[in-house]
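QUALITY CONTROL LOG
STEP: pairwise intake check
CHECKER ROLE: data steward
CRITERIA: each record must contain a sequence immediately followed by its structure tokens, with no blank fields

ENTRY 1 OF 2
RESULT FIELD BELOW
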Amino acid sequence: MIKPIKRSERPVTREIRDRSGPLPDRPVARSKAPHASPHGRAFPIGATPIDGGANFSVFTRNATAVDLLLFDDVADAKPSRVISIDPVANRTYHYWHTFVPNLQPGQIYGYRVTGPFDPANGLRFDPTKLLLDPYGRGVVVTKNYDRWAGAREGDNTAVAMKSVLVDSGAYDWEGDERPCTSSARTIIYEMHVRGFTRHPSSSVAEAKRGTFAGLIEKIPYLKQLGITAIELLPIFAYDAQDCPPGVVNYWGYQPVSFFAPHAAYSSRTDPLGPIDEFRDMVKALHRAGLEVILDVVYNHTSEGGANGPTFCFKGFANRAYYILENDQSRYADFSGCGNTLNANHPVVRRMILDSLRYWVEEMHVDGFRFDLASILSRDIDGNVLPNPPIVWDIESDPVMAGTKLIAEAWDASGLYQVGSFVGDTWKEWNGRFRDDARNFFRGVPGSHRRFADRFVGSPEMYRQEHREPEQSVNFVACHDGFTLNDLVSYNDKHNEANNDQNRDGSNDNFSWNCGVEGPSDDPQVEKLRNRQCKNLLTVTMLSLGVPMILMGDEARRTQLGNNNAYCHDSEFNWFDWTLVEKHADLVRFMRLLAERRMLRSIEHEQKRTTLGEMIDAATKAWHGTKLDQPDWSDCSQCFALTTELQKDKLCVHLIFNASPQALEFELPPSCTAPKNPWGRWIDTGLDSPNDIVSWRERVPVSADTYLVQPRSVVVLFGNIERLRKSGNRASD
């Protein structure tokens, strides 16, 4: 993830500090609600409705006073009631708690915490700041919200975010069941909730555009496209003002809560609306057989660095929640966003696990993609741990069993763990697949060797890991970087609209504009770009691993060359639905690609076959233009692969030609007999509808060679029994 704020220098190791004492790795079994106590109880943490009122509990170690503030409305500048929590009767260990009778779900509240302000020792208590509940299930934002009032001196109550009391059990799931789609059949569609339906062309009612409810209306499109899982950019409550002046934080990678859905993504205006509308969306997606994966940010918060605002964690337990440098007034910044969450501190470990459990148990989420997941590998001093407790906690937690866990296995300080992320079941965003696929199709010398490895599951990286073949999440475009259309339309980034003089965003895009920078009226340029899009979609969908497609790439959505569009809530970022008709041929191409993947064998999952075992058992052969003569020299820009689909009794022959010339490729002779010709499924060098057909209606190919057009991919099917009887069994 690229973020707008420049990261600080890597911190030096500091002295061990703020060890609050070990907390249990696993909380005791929780009941639906604690018994009422006049003083409240330490557990559960957060605000919990119970018979006759609500229990409140927060962690703060060095505070001298804690006040609970109740509000009648989000816009209230002053609380209707202030409850001072007794530091003796209402404190257990470092948990301050109280019971408030007669409160109902929907109650708006916040905290004020008094304690020493001593930044040099990591303490930043400020009783003039209204604080969100770190475990609050709901967050409301007043219309005159002012982020920087949390950083200036003085009371910020009138313009601060506030928490909402939520009864998470008060919802009828109507027998909801998770689809539990196998990894072998999973197709991920990365999308932005608001951007998916906000455009006027979405046909969604105006009041629901850009919301969870609006997304529900587009489920038929996702089903038709062949998607099995949506991966939502952050939907945790975030600070939209955390960005440079003149723009808005659109992506949402600036969390203010790890339990509350973002209120602006709800079409409802009541405080409890976002919670129920999110669950309505999940329930509707599950009914359609679609899984919900959340992009989660457990690596930093929107409070920023030393000059950032105080709205939650800084004001409760700054030394526990954040990794600090030797000078504890400074924040270690492995995230590139000003601070780094102290993920392996006992209190923060508990919070992350409680958050994940909440989204699985109460919100029925199917999986998580962890932003900058390598930060989870750092200890309380920022050093990299060989076996980070939080990573193993997440994987081994029984509540998390069966959920999809995906790591973005790097951070903003250079730690890169793709191929080596700790754990047995974690999948990884494969950034090397992205780069090598891009380089191959733009003709970079020698890239075909690396791309061939990526296509068959990246055994160079994963073979030694002894994990399932779908460990690699393969993609060529995501929210961070060029869209697929821009990847084939721009050589350089064009981020001037971000108000940072085009300095933000990556300079290494591995893109090729097909001869013209930006939009073009030249039909030959457009034809080549369309072909390149089909090439990249084909290899993403057919490679060994889990494919991920970026929202709108199937219809050539553009961001006009901006590769860091985190700060634009406008048509610049929204899905223009007129493109679906304009590029109907590409949408059709994607749909037919997905149709075949849904029929893939999952036998290796049932047998727990590893990538190495699967590759060792496979019958396959590499070729060049001549059979069994692959050319791996730097001057080559093509190769072919023959392999078997054992369960389907099919032989597959794939040809990749990234050169600017048409090339004649020999075909395995055993499948050229008149009674058993090869069948053409895909040829991206042909115009639609001949570029792809339903795989069951393959076009016969009876010649012993095949002419592959420049920069094209061809996929042929043949009968596996015929191949074996011929005696020409391909070998590794």
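ENTRY 2 OF 2
RESULT FIELD BELOW
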Amino acid sequence: MALRARLGRLSIPSIRSRMLAIALLPALLTEFGMVAYFTARTFAAAEQTARARAASAVRHLADTLPYALATGGATEARDLLEAEIRDSRLAFARVTDGHGRALASAGDAPGPAFDDDGFRLDVALRPPGASFLHGAPSAAPAAFSGGLPGHVEVGVTLGQTGTFKRDTLIHAASLMLLALTLTAALAWRLSNRLAGQLRHIGRVVERLACNDLAVRTQLPAGGEVGALAAGVNDMAEALQAHRSELERRINEATADLAAKKDMAERANQAKSRFFAAASHDLRQPLHALSLFVAALKVRNRQPESQTLIDNIEASTAAMELLFDALLDISRLDAGTIEAHPVHFPLRKMLLDLEHQFSALAAEKQLRLRFRPCDVVLYSDPLLIERILVNLITNAIRYTDDGGVLVACRRRGRTVRLSVIDTGRGIPPDQQDSVFQEFVQLHNPARDRSKGLGLGLAIVSRLGRLLGHRVDLRSVPDHGSTFSIEVPCGDARLIQPPAPAPAPGQIPGDALVLLVDDESAILRGMAELFDNWNLDLVTAHSADEAEHWLASLGRVPDVIVSDYRLPDDVDGIEVIARLRQTLGRDIPAILVTGDTAPDTILRISKAGFPLLHKPLRPAKLRALLTHLIQQARSAAVG
């Protein structure tokens, strides 16, 4: 990704322009320097040649003019000067006598500015020898009659080299332009090649970034760009190998996790089956025991036996408390408990909780305080009360000194309900585990008087069911604070509680059919119904129930059936069969000791009232009264 980002920031036109600048600037400077150097050398050589030519011409004239003057006079001297001007490309030439008088001249006479645009050479004439003079004509110039030498002077203008210089500059500029053009063309070609290679590498890196790890660069390995391409290929190979290794490890880890998950699910299912079977098998004798205790308590007339019966009843109630907590966990896991949110005031609930727990706190010499909260909440009041009951019970149980405070604080559109204690506190590394089942930090001996370790597990599940967050803040030896955030309600939407129905009586001619495969439970129920003076028909199966009903010639008002029956038959099937046989939609109640979530969910979907073993006689009687009265009212109507 870093390489891709770097190549992404790379501007190809910038590379080309920089390469052109790098190639052309040194070439331009070099060529300009060379042209300037060689042009200056050429100009200097041209001027030096002109001077040398003038010097040669003036020496030649100095040698020949005396003879020309001696033999031909001024006319021949002038011809000689003109010839020398043509041959040596002089600006002018002249000869003077010893007094500076011009004897002969040729060319343009030099002006006042000649010295700024040219140069002169002046050489003294040497008179010819005496032998030559003796044979010379009598018309020899008078310059030599007195024996005084004359002078020959030539001039060369630098302007004569202007054309040469211009041509030289034009040729130099042409050569420099040609060289720059060739250099630019070569640099452009090289930059295009480099830019194309970089673009190719950039496209490869982009495809690599798009997870196409099979792509490779197709550039030769030579040079720096080739090394870069080879590095990209090596990186792609490494990425592909790394991905293959990661995929292999992920597949292995996935397979391992799937195997462990399957193993955990099988273990959990086995645990659930064992737990359900153990719960059912334990609830059966406990159910019979509770029925016998209830019947014994009614029939007992001896005061000395009442204490013993009360102790048995208390032990049975303690066992029922454990099973009820386990049942709550199972119902929450099965999803059969539904939340019914309404708008309700919090003050009344806190007053009821204060009356409920005042005696328990006073027994431990703890100060229990409820801070007044005039707020309206929107939630399920029964489940909120259950959460607060579990939190207050837990706080009182694990607080040895100080007190417990129940308070609330409004935060925007929510209300934070808190139960604060000065108890033993919870270490930070164990604050998550306290919400798990059967976890008790301060009860290693599993003393039942200190709870069962299910209260906070129920609180956690109820919080998730309601969608309310449950928080815990605790410091060891300084207490704990359990909080739950509940949405605010609207006081205008509070509905008055419905009046409680008046308790009714079971009609004396009512008949109840009980189907259960446990003989002890049938005997216990028979004893209980005898105390209630109600008619009861007991049967171990549907066939036996049909037989007894046919012999009596009566139709039961209510069918009470155990859910789990022999021969893979359940209570739902028994009720459906009896209804079909009798031809009536008879009210029915299912009783079970099974707490498996799937069992609870199946019974809930069937739509039958459900009572769990060990059932409370008062609850059974109230449900029977309600169903019988409802059915007879519907028949009359």
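INTAKE CHECK: passed for both entries
DESCRIPTIVE NOTE, ENTRY 2: Residues 1-11, 130-148, 444-449 have pLDDT under 50 and may be disordered.
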